[in-house]
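Posting for a labmate who doesn't have an account.
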Amino acid sequence: MKTKPEPKKGKMGKRGSLVEERAMPYKTTAMSAEHVLPYESFEITNFRCFDSFKIDSFSRVNLITGVNNSGKTSLLEALFLHLGRTNPGLVLILNSWRGLNIISESAESQWESLFWRLKDSQDIIIKGTSSTGSQNMLAISTSTTKTIVEKKTYLGQAESISGPQRGILFKYADENGHEQTVKGIPVFVKKDDRVSYELRIEPALPSVYTNNIFVSCRHGSDTGEEVQRFSNLRKKEKDAIILSALRIIEPRLESLEILIYQGTSMIHGY
């Protein structure tokens, strides 16, 4: 009969500190690096602050650093969208984390903030290349959608649906050349006195499972409250205090101004 060897007793140093201990063999069941992040290189064109940007090599753990407004969050957002592949609804999530979660029925494109210099005339191209050289590409564009007006009656309740003029298009091509195109059509659903916003996905494709989590640094911020507080300081001619404080974080900041974007008043920094 075999018996397990008894572990060696730890030797004690001064004041009872443990200086040596018998350790059991350690085995990990964690996924290999190629499964943790399926890219060796990553390329972004016409997205947020990036005209053109490329990372040539990724490792299992990657530390991204840079000054303020250099595009660290935008890089993570591009990775998030590329992993989502055919889910235009992810754009609404990203915009809401940036405080752009108030949607209006204006003719202005709801998607301009995604594009470099707010120009949606050119497609966003996001490419990921694996260690084997296979490439997956996501192209994001906007398209004109017909205004939708419908009336439905359900249990005696009238419901009207209307849609704005711009939709968002996700076109995904995998390493085998197979392409999938999905359109997200924004609609406003009016029922009784309530109005809700939805993004209709056409065609409705099954969700792509990817083991990724995006942890946003923005929590609980109220854009309207920020604008109101800045306005109060501006009326008292004390807004320079905010400007000088922000310059500690971002020395390139020249001025602050309240602008309306997508029907929402926001503080804009030059």
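Reply:
Got it, the structure tokens are right above this. The longest strand covers residues 179-191.
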